[in-house]
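Budget justification note: compute hours in this period were largely spent on complex prediction jobs such as the one shown. Inputs:
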Amino acid sequence: MIAALTTSAFIVTAACGAIRLLRGPALADRVIALDVVLISLMGAIAVRAAETGTTTYLDLLVVIAIVGFTATVAASRFIERESTQP
Amino acid sequence: MTPIAATLALTGALVALLAGIGLLRFRTPYARFHAAGKASPVAFLLVAAAAAIETGWGGAARLAVASAALVLTLPVGVHLLFRAVHRTTPRTLAIDELAPAEVRSRPGPAGP
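Corresponding output:
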């Protein structure tokens, strides 16, 4: 019950992020929306671990966090360079 | 789940919902970054605390590493995005404390 409610909330958050990802006026909005979708995925993985008690998928969380950070930094550098060097 | 873990997980889900709603409803990019970049790590921290209570020491160690990675990296990423938006869009802010610092750190129009 608790796990279903929590997972549903994370799914709704990811849906909000996906809508912003599709609609966002600027590239930076899409990047931060992708970050929010990734963090919702991380939260859903943590909820799954809390529900079942298994720790198998918890190793994914670090990987997702680092990949999301790398993508954000690369995209922000890309946004700056794109605007200063037409 | 124990009641404490259930409370933490539900609070984290509520904060995540707030982040999603703020990302969807706010009008300026800065407000959207504010909502998404501050609320979502808090949501993950709460859910990770709930999962750490449930999974014991092995799971708690992995969740601590993941939380540290997220909390250390996400503000940096959001700050870089914020600065990229600040540098590439016209200035419309009422109070802008970053623009004088940018002028000081980048003398001359032909910056790096």
